[in-house]
Design brief:
alpha+beta, 3-stranded mixed beta sheet, 16% strand, elongated
Length: 128
């Protein structure tokens, strides 16, 4: 599995179930959880790019940054932060997650329909 495959939301239908589970885990680490801790919306610091990475020491005077964060009950040290523009968040998180949610909903609906059809066919009787 490659990172580019996980970012290619138009082709999520090609992902394996394990890869889709990984994406669900990514949802759990949503920007909401990391916002203003590791991810900072700051158009000025992005310059011409849609996002930019900085060593934590170089931005301490510009942003309020903690040197650690608790994720899944474990404390993790922060060495770099990322600034982003809303276009980055839309293109690389919001739209891909929405596409995945739609695909998972459609797959669940398809499984539900097949289960109902199987029950119906098992309950039919033939009169001869």
């Amino acid at each position: 599995m490659s990172i580019s495959a996980l970012k290619d939301y138009q082709n999520y239908y090609r992902l394996t179930e394990e890869e889709k589970k990984l994406l669900v885990f990514c949802v759990m680490l949503s920007p909401d959880v990391l916002l203003n801790k590791v991810f900072f919306q700051n158009d000025r610091m992005c310059g011409d790019s849609s996002n930019e990475f900085y060593d934590i020491g170089t931005v301490a005077s510009q942003l309020v940054v903690s040197n650690s964060i608790v994720i899944g009950g474990q404390r993790k040290n922060i060495h770099k932060i990322m600034t982003f523009k809303m276009s980055w968040l839309r293109n690389h998180y919001l739209e891909p997650i929405q596409a995945l949610a739609r695909e998972l909903d459609e797959a669940e609906e398809s499984r539900r329909r097949r289960a109902i059809a199987a029950r119906r066919s098992n309950n039919e009787c033939a009169v001869m």
